[in-house]
UniProtKB/TrEMBL annotation, chain A:
Record protein name field: Zf-HC2 domain-containing protein
Residues spanning the membrane: 93-113, 119-139, 160-183, 189-206, 213-230, 242-266
Keywords: Membrane, Transmembrane, Transmembrane helix
Source taxon at top rank: Bacteria
UniProtKB/TrEMBL annotation, chain B:
Domain (ABC transporter) ranges: 5-236
SUPFAM superfamilies, alphabetized: P-loop containing nucleoside triphosphate hydrolases (SSF52540)
Single annotated GO MF: ATP binding
Assigned protein family: Belongs to the ABC transporter superfamily.
PANTHER family cross-referenced by the UniProt entry: ABC TRANSPORTER, ATP-BINDING PROTEIN
Location of the region described as Disordered in the Swiss-Prot/TrEMBL record: 232-257
SMART domains on file: AAA
Protein name, entry field: ABC transporter ATP-binding protein
Keyword Signal: no
Keywords: ATP-binding, Nucleotide-binding, Transport
Length: 282, 286
C-alpha cells in the first residue's frame, strides 16, 4: 500500500464528519488497509462509539410509526403527542369501518330516498358519530389502560382533549367526505357540523355528573327527541328541520360554546377519580 | 426514618358499603405486604394511595406531597408506580410500545431518553428479548411483567402492586417474587396479596386488613408469633378449633385455643393470619 489516510481524516471519519469524495476514498481504502484500520481504532473515541451504537440500537428498537403518526410528526406535532393521538382506542379499523358504513348508508338514503329534497337522515346521524366516538375513547369501562392512565402525572383532562381532538378530527373529516357526496344540497349539507360540536361538548360536560356512558347516551337520546319534535312541528312540510335552519345553527353554536366553557370549569373532575366505579374486589 | 407514605383516618364508602374505615398507616422503604380476604378493602386502599380514587375522609402524603390539591396529586403521581389488579393493554401494542405509551403518560417526552428508559425497565423484568412481540401473543406471566415494567418506568419511589402473582404458575410466581424483591431495594413497595408465602418470602413488614380496617401491623415474625402455642395436631378435627383442616399426613391441623395436653405444632405466618382475621390475634404490633 503506497499511501495511507491521514490521521486528521481518520478522526473526521470516526466522528462521521468526513465528507465525500474523501469519505468514499477512505471507505475503499480502509477495507484493504490493516494499518489504517488500526489507526482508526486508536483515534476513535470509545465513549462516542458507544453512544453511536446506543443510538443505532435505540432506533432499531423504536416503535415503527404508522402512516398517520408519521404524517402528524412530519406536520410538526411533537412525537409524544402524535403517539397519544394515534393510540386513541376508538381509532381502530372496526370503529372507522362502522362509521364509513353508517355514513355511506345515510348519504345513499339522502340521495335516493323519498325525501331527496333534504339530506335529513345524513344531517340527523352525522352529529351522533363524533359524540359516540369521543364517548368510546375515554373512560373506565372502555379504555383498557384507564386505570394506569388516571394515576399518571399527565392530567386526565389533557389526555381527554388529545383524544377528543383525534376523534373529532377523524369524525369530522369522514363526515366532510360524506358531505361531498351530496353536492346538490350546497352548504345545507354542512348543517351537521355545529350540532356535532354541540353534542360532543355537551356529552363531555355532563360526563362528570352522569358518567362516561350515561352522559353521551342521554345527549344522543335528547338529540333524537329534538329532531322528532322538530319534525312534528315542521312548517311547511318538507322544509328543513329547526336545528338545521339558521336559527337552529345559532342555538347549536351557543350550546357548543356554553358546554365547552362548562367542560373547562370541570376539568379537574377528569383527573382522577370522579369517573370512578368500584372494580375488582374491595 | 421518615415514612414514604403516611396516612391518617382514611375512609371511603361505596354507597352503603364501607370500603375503608379510619385507616392509619406509615410505609417506609422496603416491601410491605397487605394481606386480607376478598372484600377486606385492600384494592380500595391501594387505589386511594395510588390517587385513582379520592378518600371520603382522612388524608395521606407520599414523599411529603398531599394529593388533595391538583399540584400535590401530580407530584404524588410523579413518584408513583402502579400495577393494578387487572392491568389493561392496548392489544395491538408490542411490549415496547405499551411501556413507551405509559412512559409518555409519565411525562417522559424526550424520545431518545424515553426509549432508553423503556429498554432499561424491560431488561429489568427480563423481557428484553421479546420487547418487539405483540402483547396479545405473550403469556399471562409475561403480560404481568410488562405491566410491572410500565409501573417501574421513571424509577418511582413508591410502588403499588395489587395482587401481581394471581394466576401465575409456581415458576412464574417465583420469578415475579425475585423481581419484586429487587424492586423493593431502595424504594417503598406496597404489595397486596392473598399468598402468605409472598409475604413470608418478600416482606419486611405486613398489614392485615378486614372490613376496611387494618387489623394487624407488624413484622411477619410478629404475625407468626400471634399463633405460637395456638396450633396443634390431632387425629380428628377438634370442634373447639377456630379453623382446622386435614394435612397431607392424614392428621388434622387446628388453630385456636388448644385443649390441655394438645400436641402443639410449630406456628406459621398463615396460622397467625387466620387468628388475626378471627379476632383472636388482632391488634397492632408495631
Amino acid at each position: 500500500m503506497s499511501w495511507h489516510v491521514t490521521e486528521e481524516d481518520l478522526r473526521a471519519y470516526a466522528r462521521g464528519e468526513l465528507a465525500p469524495p474523501g469519505l468514499w476514498s477512505a471507505d475503499a481504502h480502509l477495507t484493504g488497509c490493516a494499518v489504517c484500520r488500526g489507526v482508526l481504532a486508536e483515534v476513535t473515541d470509545p465513549v462516542a462509539l458507544d453512544a453511536g451504537w446506543e443510538r443505532l440500537d435505540a432506533e432499531l428498537d423504536a416503535p415503527r410509526r404508522g402512516w398517520c403518526e408519521g404524517l402528524l410528526v412530519r406536520a410538526g406535532v411533537p412525537d409524544h403527542i402524535a403517539r397519544l393521538l394515534t393510540a386513541t382506542p376508538v381509532l381502530r379499523g372496526s370503529w372507522l369501518g362502522a362509521v364509513v358504513l353508517v355514513l355511506t348508508m345515510s348519504v345513499l338514503a339522502g340521495a335516493l330516498g323519498d325525501h331527496a329534497a333534504s339530506p335529513t337522515v345524513f344531517l340527523a346521524l352525522a352529529p351522533l358519530l363524533p359524540l359516540a366516538g369521543v364517548a368510546l375513547s375515554y373512560g373506565p369501562a372502555l379504555d383498557p389502560t384507564y386505570e394506569m392512565a388516571v394515576v399518571a402525572p399527565t392530567h386526565g383532562f389533557k389526555l381527554l382533549m388529545i383524544r377528543t381532538v383525534a376523534v373529532l378530527g377523524t369524525g369530522i373529516g369522514l363526515n366532510g367526505l360524506a358531505t361531498l357526496a351530496l353536492p346538490g344540497y350546497g352548504l345545507r349539507a354542512l348543517a351537521w357540523l355545529l350540532p356535532a360540536l354541540a353534542l360532543t361538548a355537551a356529552g363531555l360536560a355532563l360526563t362528570p355528573r352522569l358518567g362516561p356512558v350515561a352522559a353521551p347516551s342521554a345527549v344522543g337520546v335528547g338529540w333524537v327527541a329534538l329532531l322528532l319534535a322538530a319534525d312534528a312541528a315542521r312548517e311547511p312540510a318538507g322544509g328543513p328541520l329547526a336545528p338545521f335552519t339558521a336559527a337552529g345553527q345559532g342555538v347549536s353554536a351557543a350550546v357548543a360554546v356554553f358546554a365547552t366553557g362548562l367542560l373547562f370549569l370541570l376539568r379537574d373532575r377528569f383527573d382522577s377519580a370522579s369517573l370512578r366505579r368500584p372494580q375488582g374486589s374491595l | 426514618m421518615n415514612p414514604t407514605v403516611s396516612a391518617s383516618g382514611l375512609s371511603l364508602h361505596y354507597g352503603r358499603t364501607r370500603a375503608l374505615d379510619e385507616v392509619e398507616l406509615r410505609l417506609t422503604p422496603g416491601v410491605t405486604g397487605l394481606l386480607g380476604p376478598n372484600g377486606a378493602g385492600k384494592t380500595t386502599l391501594l387505589r386511594v394511595l395510588a390517587t385513582a380514587v379520592p378518600a371520603d375522609r382522612g388524608s395521606f402524603t407520599v414523599l411529603g406531597h398531599d394529593p388533595r390539591t391538583a399540584r400535590g396529586r401530580q407530584e404524588v403521581r410523579r413518584h408513583l408506580g402502579y400495577l393494578p389488579q387487572t392491568p389493561g393493554f392496548h392489544p395491538g401494542f408490542t411490549a415496547f410500545e405499551f411501556v413507551d405509551y405509559v412512559a409518555i403518560l409519565k411525562e417522559l417526552t424526550d424520545r431518545r431518553a424515553r426509549h432508553r428508559e423503556v429498554r432499561r425497565v424491560l431488561e429489568e423484568v427480563g423481557l428484553g428479548e421479546v420487547r418487539g412481540r405483540r402483547i396479545r401473543k405473550l403469556s399471562g406471566g409475561m403480560r404481568q411483567r410488562v405491566a410491572l415494567a410500565a409501573a417501574l418506568v421513571g424509577d418511582p419511589g413508591f410502588l403499588v402492586l395489587d395482587e401481581p402473582t394471581v394466576g401465575l404458575d409456581p415458576e412464574q410466581r417465583m420469578r415475579f417474587r425475585e423481581l419484586i424483591a429487587r424492586a423493593g431495594e431502595g424504594r417503598t413497595v406496597l404489595l397486596s396479596t392473598h399468598q402468605t408465602e409472598d409475604v413470608a418470602m418478600l416482606c419486611r413488614r405486613v398489614l392485615v386488613m378486614a372490613g376496611g380496617t387494618v387489623r394487624f401491623d407488624g413484622t411477619p415474625a410478629e404475625l407468626t408469633a400471634r399463633a405460637a402455642g395456638r396450633v396443634w395436631s390431632s387425629t380428628e378435627r377438634d370442634p373447639g378449633a377456630k379453623a382446622g383442616w386435614r394435612t397431607g399426613t392424614g392428621t388434622f391441623r387446628n388453630v385456636g385455643d388448644p385443649p390441655a395436653g394438645a400436641d402443639l405444632a410449630e406456628a406459621t405466618l398463615e396460622d397467625g393470619y387466620l387468628l388475626v382475621l378471627d379476632g383472636m390475634g388482632a391488634g397492632v404490633a408495631a
